[in-house]
Specification:
The protein contains 20 helices and ten strands. It is 47% helix and 14% strand. Helix 11 crosses helix 19. With 431 residues, it is an alpha/beta fold. The strands form two sheets. Strands 1, 2, 3, 6, 7, 8, 9 and 10 form an eight-stranded mixed sheet that branches. The protein has a two-stranded antiparallel ribbon with strand order 4-5. The chain folds into two domains: 214 residues, D-Maltodextrin-Binding Protein, domain 2; 202 residues, 3-Layer(aba) Sandwich (D-Maltodextrin-Binding Protein, domain 2). The longest helix is centred in the N-terminal third of the chain and has 17 residues.
C-alpha cells in the first residue's frame, strides 16, 4: 500500500462531525449489507493513479461496511462505448468517470441525475471551484460533479528555451515564432513546437487553439459549419508554414511529443496539467525535473486579445442505469463526497498531477506555483467546439484529416478548409 493511504481515524478527524456522518454512514446504514454501489472509470486502470485510487476505494469500504462497492475499470478509449452499452442493457451504474466533453451527449441521452437536485445548489456552489463547475453545465442544469480540473493550453520547457537564449515567455505570435526559430537554431534536430499530426482527433483538438487565436471558429452559435473563413485560413497557413520551416516536425502525436519534451527536443506543446507528471516519468528524474515544466499562455495576435485554452477535466456523473438511486447520504453520495474531501484531493494531486476541483483543496495549495499559474490561465477556457454534437467523433476525424493534409503539403490551406467545410456539411452536425 502506498505511503499516502489515509486511515479511518484521519478521515473522520479531517471531516469533522458533519463529515463523519456522511463518510461513515449511520449505524443503521452500516448494519444493512444489501446496499451496493457500482463505480466505473478509467483512472484506476492506469499505472500512475491506480495505487492511490485503490487505497481510496479501500477507505470507502472501511468507512461504509454495509455498502458493497464494485469498481469496474475500463480503458479510456472504451469508456464512452461501455457506458452507453450499460445504459442500453440496463446494467446498474451508480457513478461514472467522464471526460468533460462527453457530458452533453450523456445528459441528452437521459439517465443522469441533476447534482443540484441531489446535493442542493448551495452545497455544490460552496464546495467546487467556479471554473470546475462550468464544465458540468448542460442546458442550464449541472449533471456531474467536477473531480479534476485544468485546461489544455501550452506547456513550455524552461531549459530548452534558456539554452536557446529565450529569456521571456512570448506574448505575441511574432515573438512566439522568434522563440521557436531560436530553439531550432540551437537544436537543429528538434521540433520546437510539438503538434500532433498523425492522430486526427488530437490534430483537431490542438489546431482549435490556433483557430481561436486568430478569431476563427468551427461552428456558429447555431451549429452551422463556418470553418471556411479568413481567420481559420490565417491559422492553418501559419501551421503549414511552421512545418515547412521545421518548427513543427510532422509524424508525431501527443504521446510522442511528451517523450520528446522530456528529451529536451520540444520547447512548447499543448497538454493538460498532467504534462508535469509525464515529464517526471519520461525524463527519469522525477520531481527534480519539475522546474523545467512551465504553464504558458497561448500567444495572441494583438495585445488587446486574450489568450485561449480549452476546457479539460474529469467529472463524476451519477446515473440511474439499472435502477440506481442518488441521494446525498446514500452510497453514491458518500462516494463522491469522499473523493471531494480536501485531504484526498490534495493527495491525489501529489500522486498523479491532476488538479483538485474543490475550493478548499485549491486554497490549501496556494503556494504551488505550477497549480496556481495554470488555474489562473483557465479563466479564458472554452469548451471544445465539438462537445455539443452527437456525431462529434466523426466530425473530429474529418477536421483532423484536412488540417493534417494542409500541414503536410498535400493541399493548400484554402483547399483543405473548403474540403473540410463540404465534408462537415455533408455529414451534418447532430445534437
Amino acid at each position: 500500500m502506498i505511503e499516502s493511504e489515509l486511515t479511518r481515524r484521519r478521515l473522520l478527524k479531517m471531516a469533522g462531525t458533519a463529515g463523519a456522518a456522511y463518510l461513515s454512514g449511520s449505524a443503521v446504514g452500516n448494519a444493512a449489507s444489501s446496499d451496493s454501489l457500482v463505480y466505473i472509470g478509467w483512472s484506476h486502470t492506469e499505472a500512475g493513479s491506480k495505487p492511490f485510487l485503490d487505497s481510496t476505494f479501500k477507505q470507502f469500504r472501511m468507512l461504509n461496511e454495509g455498502v458493497a462497492l464494485e469498481t469496474i475499470g475500463v480503458p479510456f478509449n472504451q469508456m464512452e462505448t461501455t457506458l452507453l452499452l450499460r445504459k442500453r442493457s440496463n446494467q446498474k451504474t451508480d457513478v461514472g468517470q467522464l471526460a468533460e466533453r462527453w457530458l452533453p451527449g450523456f445528459a441528452s441521452a437521459g439517465g443522469m441525475f441533476d447534482v443540484d437536485e441531489v446535493f442542493g445548489k448551495e452545497f455544490v456552489d460552496a464546495t467546487y471551484h467556479p471554473s470546475a463547475l462550468a464544465m458540468t453545465l448542460v442546458n442550464g442544469r449541472r449533471y456531474a460533479l467536477p473531480w479534476a480540473i485544468g485546461s489544455v493550453g501550452l506547456v513550455g520547457h524552461a531549459k530548452v528555451l534558456a539554452d536557446a537564449g529565450v529569456s521571456e515567455m512570448p506574448v505575441l505570435i511574432d515573438a512566439f515564432l522568434d522563440a521557436l526559430r531560436k530553439v531550432k537554431k540551437d537544436k537543429p534536430s528538434s521540433s520546437p513546437m510539438g503538434f500532433s499530426t498523425k492522430n486526427p482527433a488530437l490534430t483537431q483538438f490542438e489546431a482549435q487553439l490556433f483557430f481561436w487565436t486568430f478569431g476563427g471558429s468551427l461552428f456558429s452559435d447555431d451549429g452551422e459549419v463556418v470553418v471556411d473563413s479568413n481567420e481559420n485560413r490565417q491559422a492553418l497557413t501559419l501551421l503549414a508554414d511552421m512545418v515547412k520551416e521545421g518548427l513543427i516536425l510532422p509524424g508525431n502525436d501527443r504521446f510522442d511529443i511528451r517523450r520528446l519534451f522530456a528529451q529536451e527536443q520540444v520547447a512548447f506543446y499543448p497538454d493538460p496539467p498532467l504534462a508535469r507528471a509525464f515529464a517526471r516519468a519520461q525524463s527519469g528524474q522525477g520531481k527534480a525535473y519539475d522546474h523545467n515544466v512551465i504553464p504558458v499562455a497561448m500567444p495572441v495576435v494583438a495585445a488587446d486579445r486574450l489568450p485561449v485554452c480549452i476546457q479539460w477535466g474529469h467529472l463524476l456523473g451519477m446515473f440511474d442505469y439499472g435502477g440506481a438511486k442518488a441521494s446525498p447520504d446514500g452510497a453514491s453520495g458518500k462516494f463522491v463526497k469522499l473523493l471531494s474531501q480536501t485531504e484526498i484531493q490534495i493527495e491525489y494531486y501529489k500522486q498523479t498531477g491532476v488538479f483538485p476541483s474543490t475550493k478548499a483543496a485549491l486554497a490549501a495549495m496556494k503556494d504551488d506555483s505550477y497549480l496556481v499559474t495554470w488555474i489562473g490561465l483557465t479563466n479564458t477556457a472554452r469548451p471544445d467546439e465539438l462537445t455539443p454534437f452527437a456525431n462529434a467523433n466523426e466530425m473530429r476525424t474529418v477536421i483532423g484529416e484536412e488540417i493534417a493534409a494542409a500541414m503536410l503539403g498535400q493541399k493548400t490551406p484554402s483547399e483543405a478548409l473548403t474540403n473540410m467545410s463540404d465534408r462537415l456539411k455533408a455529414i451534418g452536425p447532430r445534437k
